Amino acid sequence: MFISHDGDVSARITATYDLLFSQKVVLQPRFETNFAVQRVSPFDVGKGLNDLQIGLRLRYEIKREFAPYIGFSWFHRFGDTAAIVRGKGERPNYFTAVFGLRTWF
């Protein structure tokens, strides 16, 4: 849950699950969605359900604390948020490729 300095309230739900193919290779489905209590146009945020992101990441754990990954995700905006971005000439849904490094101590 987030509250801005202006009192704007929003929340995020993220869910992941690790599917082990071996001791070092892991496939991770991901789900994320955002909600807002009120419209905040400067941040392209509408009231209600804002967006949904679904994706997959494949990582190789060189060490448990150090794992590069690649993947893709599908992102879709809904309702008021979609109307805001359409008004700016942007698309409300798209695919992205992701890559990165997962680390922890």
Would you spell out the secondary-structure blueprint of this structure?
Elements: E1 2-3, E2 9-16, E3 19-20, E4 25-36, E5 48-60, E6 66-77, H1 79-87, E7 93-103
Description:
9% of the residues are buried. The mean pLDDT is 92. Strands 1, 2, 3, 4, 5, 6 and 7 form a 7-stranded antiparallel β-sheet that branches. This protein has one domain. It is built from 1 helix and 7 strands, in the order ββββββαβ. The protein has one helix spanning 79-87; strands spanning 2-3, 9-16, 19-20, 25-36, 48-60, 66-77, 93-103.
Structure described in brief:
The chain has 1 helix and 7 strands. The protein has one helix at residues 79-87, and strands at residues 2-3, 9-16, 19-20, 25-36, 48-60, 66-77, 93-103. Strands 1, 2, 3, 4, 5, 6 and 7 form a 7-stranded antiparallel β-sheet that branches.
Task: Give descriptors for this structure.
single chain; about 100 residues; mainly beta; 7-stranded antiparallel beta sheet; elongated
Unreliable stretches covering 5 or more consecutive residues: none
Largest sheet: 7 strands, antiparallel
Shape: elongated
Percent helix, as a range, is under 10%
Tally of domains:
1
Alpha carbon gap, first and last residue: 25 Å
Number of DSSP strand runs: 7
Q: How much of the residues is beta strand, in percent?
A: over 45%
Question: How do the SSEs run, as a string of H and E?
Answer: EEEEEEHE
